[in-house]
Design goal:
The structure holds two protein chains of two kinds.
Chain A (H helix, E strand, L loop, with lengths): L29 E10 L5 H10 L12 E9 L5 E9 L9 H5 L4 E7 L3 H17 L5 E7 L11 H10 L3 E4 L8 H18 L1 H4 L7 H5 L5
Parallel strand pairs in A: 1-3, 1-4, 4-5, 5-6
Antiparallel strand pairs in A: 2-3
Chain B lengths: L6 H4 L10 H20 L21 H4 L1 E7 L18 E3 L16 H13 L14 H15 L2 H8 L2 E7 L4 E4 L8 H16 L2 E8 L2 E8 L2 E7 L5 H19 L3 H7 L13 H10 L5 H4 L9 H15 L5 E6 L2 E7 L7 H13 L2 H4 L1 E6 L10 E7 L4 E7 L5 H17 L2 H11 L43 E8 L4 E4 L9 H18 L9 E5 L4 E6 L3 E7 L5 H17 L1 H4 L10
Antiparallel strand pairs in B: 1-2, 1-5, 3-4, 3-7, 5-6, 6-7, 8-9, 8-12, 10-11, 11-12, 13-14, 13-17, 15-16, 16-17
Helix pairs in contact in B: 2-7, 4-7, 8-10, 8-13, 10-13, 12-15
The chains are: A alpha/beta, B alpha+beta.
């Protein structure tokens, strides 16, 4: 894996969370972001992560147990690096109660649903509510409709999802882990967003969520 | 039993609530006889997996064998160690062969099938329709049976019935939780039948252990609100099957903990299946291992053969992290232990290791990246989750670090980085790969004369293989027709098993031998005829020899034509050989294990 040691250094985060460090590191040139993926089982959370981290896609589904931890560093245009420390959580019901363990202290929550499954979209809404109630108040949420390659079987319209995302101050994107569509955009966009807002100190201090759309919506995928 | 208040099941009760156990059991036998005639009588089934001596027709002794119900006294604790105290006292031999044809005297118990309907109503899994009549008459039963047959004749069901060994988990309200074969939800009716039988006997303040129907055995295990049932025609001993059910239950606890019982206290009709979502592979892998992994009946673990110094190096770094607050640090290669260390006073039961290894190896996602997952070690503490950090260090070797602290991830990750760098530096991982390539003990390498052993080259694994010429080969395998052996060290709770060699060439032969060992184990540890010291048994397949002392148990298989005196002599040499190599094949913990 080659992950650098992320053992708590100087800044210990909230106690009782898995991050053990600040969600976004202080060094403005090297941002470190804790990101958590949530969503129903089988929507492709692990596939999104593996596509992003390893550039792989494995169609045989492997049920995640507990949560997997992966990291990936990307470079932005001005040589700033963003290191994503990604918690890929299991979608199974028995792990739902343990989700706070993984999302506490996360800077970014990526809530994933499957565009061919209305149930998974409902589950995504459950996670959004859960994060609004129990997540860190300044958490950035992204709503991701995965399996965009299966658009012929689409059951959740992009319009509905976008409206829901806007209403809840979320960033919305449809991806396909299979074809790699929008996968890098999802993470790069998140990185740029965090970076910009980091330098402007807007999102981290913003108390207007979910009303404050400017944070989310003003940003563009490069 | 609350659940039994479903109208159709109610009719199962005798009208007078007399706790007449014998009568009750007879009724259950009748129910069971029908059950078996409906669902189990498919002796023409073949899946090629097993050797079955009979042809398609029922054996002549089918009806004579009769049904037996072994009732366990309520007082008897459902202990894990097979201790059926006072168990067979309630035996009733059901000899009415007519029962098999469904022509037993009409009895209220015909609702063995009614239960099916009762449950199908809310589960909608079964196409079966209820005719709405509360009391179920014999006619209804016969009709029902026919309908059941029709129902069973779709593709899925026919193949379901052909299976030789079923494992079914259900809740005390009759809701299916897991089935080895078929869709649990479609088996709602069948599960309800099983529930009716179990709760009927439980209501008589008794316990149902086993029902025999011809070649089939139905073994029951009740664990609070969870019922586990095995239905098979594999001729395995009752004790073995019950221990397999215990392991299956343990595997469920490993995933969910025993606190699942509380869900049933709150809601008896609680549906557990969603909580086990995605774990089918874990259970089916465990059940598969009943056929190949001797750890499942020996209750011991086995180590990957390694030079003493290599294992020491691995143990030292694991001990290091255990001292820093890690509860257990376990380094394994597939199902074999490289080294393991526990914190002060923490003990790890071999069954927990088996279940943990099975869980990790059967969950593919552990291979892709480092993981952090709650798991429960049922023998350590069935009520609480531990947090497991799991990382594969190479394709076969994985490190498991267990902590009681849910926030321990970054600490455990740090420990793993330290451990991994030490293992790489001290070449342990390469040695592990080499050991996998070379394998363990080969019977062909058994030293010829024990007097040669001290100081000879064969003192190390794999070194003696250059001298097979000295070995007097009788046919194939090792000296004196030795084909295979398992040596279990009682003090260490570890076993070593020889590698398979000709003529034991394929999986079904391995499985057959393990079944034979399993029967041997069960008969040697039979509580009623007392623990035995030696057994020598010859059949058409093998000569089997078992020798149990205070320190070890030896199980050996020889060519069926092997000479007895030679075989016994060879067994002595095997024991000596194992002792000579013990530093390489066993883990001697400097760690505080007090099994």
């Amino acid at each position: 894996m080659g992950c650098a040691s992320s053992f708590p250094g100087k800044n210990v985060g909230r106690s009782g969370s898995l991050n053990g460090e600040q969600t976004v590191a202080n060094d403005p040139k090297n941002i470190r972001v804790k990101l958590v993926l949530l969503g129903d089982s089988g929507v492709g959370k692990s596939c999104i992560v593996l596509r992003f981290v390893r550039g792989q896609f494995d169609p045989t589904s492997k049920v995640t147990v507990g949560a997997s931890f992966l990291s990936q560093t990307i470079a932005l245009q001005d040589s700033t690096t963003v290191k994503f420390e990604i918690w890929d959580t299991a979608g199974q019901e028995r792990y739902a109660a343990l989700a706070p363990l993984y999302y506490r202290g996360a800077a970014v929550a990526v809530v994933v649903y499957d565009i061919t499954s209305p149930d998974s979209f409902l589950k995504a809404q459950y996670w959004v509510k859960e994060l609004q109630k129990h997540g860190s108040p300044d958490i950035v949420m992204a709503l991701v409709g995965n399996k965009a390659d299966l658009h012929e079987n689409r059951k959740v319209s992009a319009q509905d999802a976008m409206e829901y995302a806007e209403k809840n101050g979320m960033f919305f994107i449809e991806t396909s882990a299979k074809t790699a569509d929008n996968i890098n955009q999802l993470f790069e966009g998140t990185g740029i967003y965090l970076y910009r807002n980091k330098t402007q100190l807007s999102w981290i201090t913003c108390n207007n969520r979910p009303k404050c759309r400017s944070c989310i919506c003003c940003y563009e995928v490069p | 039993m609350d659940s039994a208040s479903d109208a159709p099941i109610k009719s199962l009760r005798p009208a007078d609530r007399e706790p007449n156990i014998a009568a009750g059991l007879q009724q259950v036998s009748a129910t069971e006889a029908r059950l078996s005639s409906v669902t189990l009588k498919d002796s023409s089934s073949r899946d090629g997996e097993d050797r079955v001596p009979s042809n398609g027709s029922l054996p002549a002794d089918f009806y004579d064998a009769g049904e037996e119900i072994e009732a366990e006294d309520e007082e008897a604790p459902p202990s894990v160690a097979a201790a059926p105290e006072g168990s067979f006292e309630g035996d009733i031999a059901w000899r009415d062969g007519q029962g098999m044809d469904g022509e037993a005297p009409p009895s209220p118990s015909s609702s063995g099938y009614a239960g099916e309907r009762g449950s199908s109503g809310d589960s909608s899994g079964i196409v079966e329709e209820s005719d709405g009549s509360g009391g179920v008459s014999q006619v209804d039963w016969d009709k029902g049976k026919q309908r059941l047959h029709e129902n069973m004749q779709d593709d899925a069901s026919v193949s379901w019935r052909k299976r030789k060994k079923h494992f079914i988990i259900l809740s005390h309200s009759g809701k299916p939780i897991y089935s080895r074969y078929g869709d649990e939800h479609k088996l709602a009716g069948f599960a309800a039948t099983l529930q009716a039988i179990i709760s009927f006997v439980e209501n008589g303040r008794d316990r149902l252990k086993c029902v025999r129907a011809g070649k089939h055995q139905v073994v029951f295990l009740v664990k609070g609100p969870i019922y586990l049932v095995c239905i098979c025609c594999t001729e395995e001993p009752y004790e073995s099957l019950r221990e397999q059910l215990e392991l299956l239950y343990g595997q469920m606890l490993l995933i969910l903990t025993k606190s699942i019982d509380r869900c049933f206290e709150k809601n008896p009709k609680f549906d557990m299946t969603p909580l086990l979502g995605g774990t089918e592979a874990v259970f089916s892998s465990l059940i598969h291992s009943f056929g190949w992994n001797p750890a499942t009946f020996l209750h011991a673990y086995t180590c990957l053969p390694l030079a003493y110094s290599t294992r020491q190096a691995a143990g030292a770094i694991l001990q290091d992290v255990a001292d820093s607050g890690v509860l257990f640090a376990i380094l394994m290669c597939k199902h074999k232990v490289i080294s393991l260390v526990g914190a002060q006073k923490a003990t790890l039961h071999p069954d927990d290791m088996l279940l943990l290894a099975n869980f990790i190896l059967s969950s593919e996602s552990f291979r892709t990246s480092e993981s952090f997952s709650p798991i429960c070690l049922p023998r350590y503490n069935p009520m609480a989750f531990l947090y497991a950090y799991v990382q594969y260090l190479d394709v076969d070797t994985y490190l498991t670090l267990l902590s009681t602290n849910s926030d321990a991830f970054y600490h455990l990750k740090d420990c793993r980085i330290r451990i991994e760098s030490v293992l790489v530096k001290s070449n342990v991982l390469n040695e592990v790969q080499r050991s996998i390539m070379e394998g363990g003990m080969h019977v062909e390498d058994l030293p010829v004369d024990s007097s040669l052993r001290s100081g000879s080259a064969s003192n190390h694994l794999g070194m003696g293989r250059s001298e097979p010429v000295l070995v007097p080969q009788s046919g194939s395998g090792g000296p004196a027709g030795l084909w295979h052996f398992i040596y279990r060290s009682i003090n260490l709770d570890q076993y070593v098993s020889s590698e398979f060699s000709s003529p034991l060439n394929n999986f079904s032969q391995h499985k057959r031998l393990y079944r034979a060992y399993q029967r041997l184990y069960a008969s040697m540890h039979d509580q009623q005829t007392g623990p035995h010291k030696t057994q020598y048994k010859r059949d058409e397949d093998y000569v089997l020899f078992c020798w149990i002392t205070q320190d070890f148990e030896l199980y050996a298989a020889f060519d069926p034509l092997a000479d007895k005196a030679q075989a016994i002599k060879t067994c002595n040499r095997v024991c000596q050989w194992v002792r000579d190599l013990e530093n390489e094949i066993f883990l001697f913990g400097g760690s505080p294990f007090s099994w």
